């Protein structure tokens, strides 16, 4: 049991108090602050300003107009209850492993959580860049891209795009890009820090496809390269 310290409060001591004794042991501050106190207050103010400046990231506005039936269906997905925890884990850690029951919404919902938080569209440095999602199979790339663009009420080929071998539909203002793991592997060869991306999701990583396994190894280097750059 956790004792919160309220159950057995200290008995209140009864008795009389000598006012002169209290005054003798207390320091009465003059109402006008001393020079040292003014300096300290100014220092605190300056530090306070610095904190305010650090926290004053520009506000993020993301307009999402999902179809009504999608909003209704989303509410029943188990992963929706975990949105805050998932996003906090992403903010606080460079690498997050997400495990969930099949059909709970990992593939379709996590890219939307990120998009709604300003990844892919925001002018904030830490969220600028495309949300990249890999799949081991090209069929899954096309299906997930179609579904996510539909759920977000966005056009496929504009904000949501996809790329597989011999087929690419990626707009100039792409925010979410689905691709095969082979495509990302090729991109790493020319862009070792994956500067165009704000976040990378390796979906179905548990399947341990050869490409995904190599990507996991390569991404550990990407994480370090990006740490050095920031
Ligand atoms: N194209 C689609 N049309 C209709 N419903 C879909 C479509 N794609 C996914 N869904 C539904 O959305 C929900 C979430 O699916 P999602 O693919 O995100 O789950 P998941 O956690 O990635 O599952 P898995 O572990 O099998 O990959 C499921 O209930 C699924 O039936
Ligand atoms: Mg999935």
TrEMBL record:
Top-level taxon in the UniProt lineage: Eukaryota
Swiss-Prot/TrEMBL catalytic activity: ATP + H2O = ADP + phosphate + H(+)
GO molecular function, one term: ATP binding
PROSITE patterns in UniProt: DEAH_ATP_HELICASE, HELICASE_ATP_BIND_1
InterPro entries xrefs: DEAD/DEAH_box_helicase_dom, DNA/RNA_helicase_DEAH_CS, Helicase_ATP-bd, P-loop_NTPase
Keyword terms, alphabetized: ATP-binding, Helicase, Hydrolase, Nucleotide-binding
GO cellular component labels: nucleolus
Top-level enzyme category: hydrolase
Annotated EC: 3.6.4.13
Helicase ATP-binding domain mapped to chain residues: 87-230
Pfam families: DEAD (PF00270)
Gene Ontology BP term (one): maturation of SSU-rRNA from tricistronic rRNA transcript (SSU-rRNA, 5.8S rRNA, LSU-rRNA)
Protein's UniProt keywords contain ATP-binding: yes
Family to which the UniProt record says this protein belongs: Belongs to the DEAD box helicase family. DEAH subfamily.
PANTHER family: ATP-DEPENDENT RNA HELICASE, ATP-DEPENDENT RNA HELICASE DHX37-RELATED
Protein name: RNA helicase
Organism in which the protein naturally occurs: Lolium multiflorum
């Amino acid at each position: 049991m956790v004792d919160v310290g309220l159950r057995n409060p200290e008995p209140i001591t009864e008795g009389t108090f000598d006012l002169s004794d209290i005054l003798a042991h207390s320091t009465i501050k003059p109402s006008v602050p001393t020079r040292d106190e003014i300096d300290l207050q100014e220092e605190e103010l300056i530090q306070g300003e610095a904190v305010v400046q650090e926290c004053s990231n520009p506000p993020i506005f993301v307009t999402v107009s999902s179809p009504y039936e999608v909003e209704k269906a989303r509410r029943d997905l188990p992963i929706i209850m975990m949105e805050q925890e998932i996003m906090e884990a992403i903010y606080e850690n460079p690498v997050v492993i997400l495990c969930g029951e099949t059909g709970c919404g990992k593939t379709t919902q996590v890219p939307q959580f990120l998009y709604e938080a300003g990844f892919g569209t925001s002018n904030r440095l830490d969220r600028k860049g495309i949300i990249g999602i890999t799949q081991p199979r090209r069929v899954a790339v096309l299906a997930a891209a179609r579904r996510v663009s539909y759920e977000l009420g966005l056009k496929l080929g504009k904000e949501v795009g996809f790329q597989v071998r011999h087929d690419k539909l990626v707009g100039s203002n792409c925010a979410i890009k689905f691709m095969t793991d082979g495509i990302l592997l090729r991109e790493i060869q020319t862009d070792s820090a994956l500067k165009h991306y704000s976040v990378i999701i390796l979906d179905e990583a548990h399947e341990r496809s050869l490409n995904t396994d190599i990507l996991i190894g390569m991404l550990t280097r990407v994480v370090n390269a990006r740490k050095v750059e920031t």
